[in-house]
């Protein structure tokens, strides 16, 4: 068949004929010098860091009642209250009533990523069931266009959490990793290499 030009997106680092940078050679030299016990210790160390992070996350889930106690704002629909990259801290205690004016994070059927918007209307039935409507502060219309087809209101079961506090722009790293997957892999590689090569002082 005709000769196709090589896809520029498929170039691999360290391909044949590409000299590895000196730091790369040093790293492999270091790895070779490590004896098995050291390597085992560093892998164990890394596993402990990961498991500690998971335990802290599970602890936060129990303490806050929310399946996602910390989320990053991904769009500008809540400006000026929250900006893209802000880190939100959530709680989701079932006994707390949902009130108009509250900022909630909710899931919609058919959408992978939860949405953070403000409650603008609440309907409470005699039996205590609550239905409510949301809207982004920066949006012209309410969220009925975002809900699944035929759904006009949200219920408590749709709520992931309510915003209790935030840190501005701290979540930008997450957004960069979502927008540029190569950055994510580079960051993970650097972190992995750092943990493996870290010497006990």
Rg (C-alpha, Å): 24 Å
Strand order of the largest sheet: 1-2-7-3-4-5-6
End-to-end CA span: 59 Å
Percent of residues in helices: 25-40%
Count of distinct structural domains: 3
Just name the CATH architecture of the largest domain: Ribbon
The CATH class label of the largest domain is Mainly Beta
DSSP E strands, number: 7
- Rounded average pLDDT: 83
Give the H and E element order: HHEEEEEEEHH
Q: Uncertain runs with pLDDT below 50, 5 residues or more? A: 3-17
Count of DSSP H/I helices: 4
Structural topology:
Layout (H helix, E strand, L loop, with lengths): L21 H12 L2 H29 L5 E3 L14 E5 L11 E4 L8 E10 L5 E6 L18 E2 L3 E9 L4 H8 L1 H17 L4
Antiparallel strand pairs: 1-2, 2-7, 3-4, 3-7, 4-5, 5-6
Task: Briefly say what this structure is.
This protein is of the alpha+beta class. It is built from four helices and seven strands.
């Amino acid at each position: 068949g005709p000769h196709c030009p090589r896809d520029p997106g498929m170039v691999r680092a360290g391909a044949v004929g590409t000299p590895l940078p000196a730091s790369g050679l040093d790293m492999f030299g270091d790895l070779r010098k490590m004896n098995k016990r050291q390597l085992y210790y560093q892998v164990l160390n890394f596993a402990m860091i990961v498991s500690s992070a998971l335990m802290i996350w599970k602890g936060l889930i129990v303490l806050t009642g929310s399946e996602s106690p910390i989320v990053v704002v991904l769009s500008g629909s809540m400006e000026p209250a929250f900006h893209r990259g802000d880190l939100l801290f959530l709680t989701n205690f079932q006994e707390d009533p949902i009130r108009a004016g509250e900022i909630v994070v909710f899931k919609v059927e058919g959408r992978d990523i939860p949405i953070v918007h403000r409650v603008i209307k609440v309907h409470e039935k005699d039996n205590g069931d609550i239905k409510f409507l949301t809207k982004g502060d920066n949006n012209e219309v309410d969220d009925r266009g975002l809900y699944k087809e035929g759904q006009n209101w949200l219920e408590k079961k749709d709520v992931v959490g309510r915003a209790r506090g935030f840190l501005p722009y701290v979540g930008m790293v997450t957004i960069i990793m979502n927008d540029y997957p190569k950055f994510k892999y580079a960051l993970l590689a650097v972190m992995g290499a750092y943990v493996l090569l870290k010497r006990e002082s």
